[in-house]
Amino acid sequence: MEQIKLSNKRSSQSPHLLYLSDKLSLVDGMPAYAAKFIEEGKDKNFLSFSGDKGIIATIKAEESLEKCRRAGHQFFQYAKNENIWNWNLEGKASEEQKLAFLEGLALSTYTFNKYKSKKEEQTIHIHADGIDESKLKELGSVVAATCIARTLVNEPHCFLNATQYSKEIKSLAKTFGFSLKVWDKEKITKEKMGGILGVNRGSIQEPTFNILEYKPSHAVNKQAIVLVGKGVMYDTGGLSLKPTPNSMDMMKSDMGGSAAVVGAFCAVAAQKLPIHLVGLIPATDNRPGLDAIAPGDVLTMYSGKTVEVLNTDAEGRLVLADALHYAKRLKPELVMDFATLTGAAARALGPQGIACMGNAPETTKDALKASGQAVHERLLEFPMWEEYESMLKSEIADINNLGGPVAGQTTAGMFLQHFVDYPWMHFDIAGMAFLQKPDSYRGKNGTGVGVRLLYNFLKNRSQA
Question: Quick check: is 452 catalytic?
Answer without folding.
Answer: no
